[in-house]
Amino acid sequence: MKVGLLFGSFNPIHTGHLILANFMATNTDLDTVWLIVSPQNPFKPSNTLAHEFDRLQMATLAIADNPNLGVSNIEFSMPKPSYTIDTLTYLQEKYPSYEFVLIIGEDNLALLPKWKNAESLLKYYKVYVYPRSGSDTTEITNLPNVSFVKAPMLDISATFIRQCIREEKSIKYLVPDEVADYIKVHKLYR
Question: Which residues form the Cytidyltransferase-like domain (predicted)?
Fold first, then answer.
């Protein structure tokens, strides 16, 4: 089984995440894509994050009707902040017959050398890169385990969605209806 891993805060999960994950699961050699809900990204401040269980629940609601996608809370029980290489190593030990592929945006590719054990990550795992506007090219693009996937570019951000919620503006079509309902019921991002 070839599993694509899309890591994120998913704060909240939105249509852009879902379109990308589904595209990767159905238009590449991946058998499935797992959304890895990260409790704390080492490169992002945690003061704007909804509780990790709320973010996990929203992601679960968002993909409930899609057999191509899964959601994982694997990092919830790991030391924080979460480091991709540690999660990949743990998953590889837990599922030795699976091949794991990291899915990242082109904007994160330039940051990858700053990640913990980046050389090992690039040596032992394939990386599928999707386009992001305004991204700079980097020498990493020429490495054998790095592949570019022509996925649709969607300029939707969780930051924008949270701002809309604070300003009491509509988030219809930016997030699935189930996620919008969850945000409203639990009074998130106000």
Answer: 6-163
Specify the pLDDT at position 68.
Answer: 98
How far is Cα 116 from Cα 130, in angstroms, rounded to an integer? 21
Stretch 92-99: mean pLDDT, rounded? 97
In a domain, 160, yes or no: no
Q: Residue 109's domain is classified under what CATH number? A: 3.40.50.620
Contacts 24+ apart (CB under 8 A), 86-92: 86/116, 87/5, 87/7, 87/36, 88/5, 88/121, 88/124, 88/125, 91/5
With respect to residue 166, please indicate whether it lies within any of the assigned structural domains.
no
Count of structural domains, the chain:
1
In a domain, residue 174? The reply is no
In contact, 59 and 35? CB cutoff 8 Å? yes
Rounded Cα distance between 78 and 81, Å, is: 8
Q: Which domain holds residue 28?
A: 2-155
**pLDDT tens by residue, 154-177:** 889 999 999 999 999 999 999 999
What pLDDT, on the 0 to 100 scale, is given for residue 113?
A: 87
35: β partners: 6, 71
